[in-house]
Amino acid sequence: MSSVSATTVPVPAPKTFRVKSFGCQMNVYDGERMAELLAADGMAPAADGDDADLVVLNTCHIREKATEKVYSDIGRIVKDAKREDGAAPLIAVAGCVAQAEGDEIMARAPAVKVVVGPQSYHRLPEMVAQAASGQRATETDMPAEAKFAALPKRRKSAPTAFLTVQEGCDKFCTYCVVPYTRGAEISRPFADLVEEAKLLVAGGAREITLLGQNVNAWTGEDEKGRKVGLDGLARALADDPDLQRIRYTTSHPNDMTDGLIAAHGEIEKLMPFLHLPVQAGNDRVLKAMNRSHTAESYMRLLERIRAARPDIALSGDFIVGFPGETDAEFEDTLRLVDAVGYAQAFSFKYSPRPGTPAATMEDHIPASVMDERLQRLQAALNRDQMAFNAASVGRTCEVLVERRGKLDGQWLGKSPWLQSVHFIGEAEIGSMVRVELVEAGPNSIAGRLL
To answer: With 0-12 CB in 10 A as exposed, 13-18 as middle and 19+ as buried, what is 426?
Structure first.
């Protein structure tokens, strides 16, 4: 949906901008692309500590608190930030909250002059120009391929870079707004992804994380016209001698193909880390969530993945307090966690999202019960993360150096298993260094440079 709202007072065209992204890695990627668009249009990133003429809030709609935080941020920006001419900055709301609420955002927050959904942000520069001329603008259409075709070429990259290969979701889990805010599953063309990956590597990236709402649902045709899945794309990217590492997220159990499982044991550059959300450990709850797997089928899948890559680190997502979840059903989730031994995991209390089937279900769980369950679950997940890190002590591995640490001569980077590693010695950003892991903490590991 496109619309131009009521006319407001024109302001000078913005010269500086700041993009603030909330939520998932795909929002980080989108935020980077919006910044590239604005820079290509002649604007400059605001210097640290300076107010920006344009503030873009790139929003997430998964959690209720994340949505409210957007409105809180809008109020804070209006109160605190002023442009050189004495006016408040132009505010644009992008991302999934923009898609879900559209013009309602402007009704609730009059300071917002631009609302643009995640499939339409390639129009952001012209919408900002409209806003500066005094016309508030909304754009929430979903032409995914038009967006990617209109984005500028990638240039400077950090040592680690994100590459969106797939968007949208056809799974319709009953708690999730993604099918409504991001649309149906769509895969970007193989050739476009290979080209963008090459540009990222040429710009300095040594590790690329392939992104998608259901990233392992990606399909395409390779340079010879053969149909390939995500494993075929990973194999093609691995041919670049300057690309050292490949990761991907977020996956769905139903889309873990035989080829992708085998790839974990066959592609050296595909890192031994897999984020594979299960959400719950009880079959009745999984069915109510419209998850198409059972606890048993999920465990069998993990066995196959570990057979292909025995040292793989596993990560997952969990929701506690889904409507109707009993104490006994929650205990099933704890038993699954104990059986898997996750290296990392994300866990949340159920949050009803407007328009989703789960929001209208009966037997919503009291907040106090959800709090208690979440504490128990997180205690188990933290225990297993610490155990995984402790078991890594004594290993020697390559670490990709991402940035300097707080101490003199300290560097920070990631192990192949996505652990944060810190060490002291001679290194440089973007280099691969050999490190012995010597001391484990709950969230990071100390290393000794070899």
So the answer is: exposed
